[in-house]
Amino acid sequence: MKKILFASSEIHPFIKTGGLADVAGSLPKALAELSQDVRVILPNYPSLKTTEDVHFISSVRVNNQQANILETRLPDSQVRVWLVDCPELFDTDGNPYVDAQGNPWENIADRFTFFSRIIVEVAMNRAHLDWQPDVVHCNDWQTGLVPALLSIESNTPATVFTIHNMAYQGIFPESTFANLNLPRQLWHPDGIEFHDMLSFIKGGLAYANRITTVSPTYALEIQTPEFGYGLEGLLSHKYNILSGIINGMDLDQWNPETDRAISEPYSIETLEHKVINKTSLQARSSLPVNKSVPLFGLISRLVEQKGIDLLLDCLNEMVEMPLQLVLLGSGDKSVEKKLMNFARLYPKKISVTIGYDEALAHQIEAGIDIFLMPSRFEPCGLNQLYSQRYGTIPIVRETGGLADTIEDALPKSLANNTATGVSFKEASAGALLEAIKRTLLLYNDKKTWKKMQKTAMSKDFSWKNSAAQYLELYEQI
Ligand code: ADP
Ligand code: GLC
């Protein structure tokens, strides 16, 4: 049995802005099911949502700042969660990264440096918790300093650093490095310095014993300039400790048979009930209720990564086609505005909800026929997994985890019953539109469509395999 400290800046259902929270809320549970002693550590944000008991267990001081450690559990599990409670840093509105107006926290470097320092205290068993992990598993730049800070200690646990997204690196001016009072010996080009700037993610990449990312294809992509954002050299240098492990999904949260957020549960055997979710979604979205019109959907952070611009460039043509669209997302204000304009112009075709709505996300996955995911890059992506589980056919761009988890509907895959979606290569509106047209042809062939739905629904996207791969990695180090 391994003792694993799993560190993340967001964890579902406590707090979530994207897929990292889904992973951090479900991989630890899967590791616990493999009989591992895993504990999760997260900042104590004021908006944390939990039904579980939360209580004080310890307090710890680093760099003249004090934190209380509160303990709770991941709902429906025995996995302990340690909340780093420091009101002057974390007790603020907004989300982990931006304030209520959407601007990045001015003190974001302080926040995650302090969080990382506390993780180090816990990792070194100096936080009065009487527990020393064998492995510290860090995720994304917010915990990147942990392997760096541990590198200057002795008798430390081993470290794994998982990249969920290379586009976010935590880069700050050199003056921030000085203000943070970080150890001088970390400041060099093979350390956390990146072209005279401080790079949090480099702390993970340069010092962790193993680096992983969330799909095998993305593990290769980030070793190229297009996806490596200047760190492709370091990543290819580290290729022998770098691997891709595809994300699983939380089958307790995303299961059309038991989902309490949707109108009518269904399974492969009762797939005909899916249409009840379609008509309620249409009604809820003020679209004409029509069982046979193909209903497209999208749930996304509205950022460049997700290729929403490609979709925007297709919308004028899409509204001429016999289809409807339900979109849910938030992010880039100009994209939000453009989508809202389309919805105003074509209220019978397009419904747009700007904001973050967990229940609606479930209703969309259950109610639509086709999920759009035209990402420019996608480390793993979770919605294409949820879609397949809900018998919703995804249209994806062939990149990262999308390439690894979707079997394009081509003559061969259709003939041998492995097709689960439609994918396209070029990041252009033309290529997306072609894929949409190809999907509409498939949709009109009811028998083929149903076969694809059933193949998608029966694929195994549980955490079991991936959690076992992480465990193997922990054992190697
Ligand atoms: P990323 O982490 O890059 O945003 P993923 O596909 O890995 O992409 O995960 C996104 C997660 O966030 C999914 O669980 C998705 O349902 C959820 N999500 C994204 N935007 C919204 C939204 N506006 N409302 C509800 N859930 C959302
Ligand atoms: C990131 C990526 C997404 C991935 C998620 C969880 O946010 O953008 O592709 O699924 O992390 O690993």
The structural domain count equals 2
**Number of distinct helices:** 19
Classify the beta-strand content into a percent band.
15-25%
Biggest sheet strand line-up: 3-4-5-2-1-6-7-11-12
Average of the residue pLDDT scores: 97
Q: Unreliable stretches, pLDDT < 50, 5 or more residues?
A: none
Instruction: Please tell me the CATH architecture of the largest domain by its name.
Output: 3-Layer(aba) Sandwich
Annotated CATH homologous superfamily of the largest domain: Glycogen Phosphorylase B
User: How would you characterize the largest beta sheet?
Assistant: 9 strands, mixed
Fold-level CATH name of the largest domain: Rossmann fold
Named once each, the bound ligands are:
adenosine-5'-diphosphate, alpha-D-glucopyranose
The count of DSSP E runs of length 2 or more, i.e. the number of strands, is 18
Estimated structural class: alpha/beta
Report the C-alpha radius of gyration, rounded: 23 Å
The geometry reads as: globular
What is the name of the CATH class of the largest domain?
Alpha Beta
How far from one another are the termini? 14 Å
Question: How do you describe this structure in short?
Answer:
This protein is α/β, with parallel strands linked by helices and 477 residues long. It has two domains: 260 residues, Glycogen Phosphorylase B (Rossmann fold, 3-Layer(aba) Sandwich), CATH 3.40.50.2000; 188 residues, Glycogen Phosphorylase B (Rossmann fold), CATH 3.40.50.
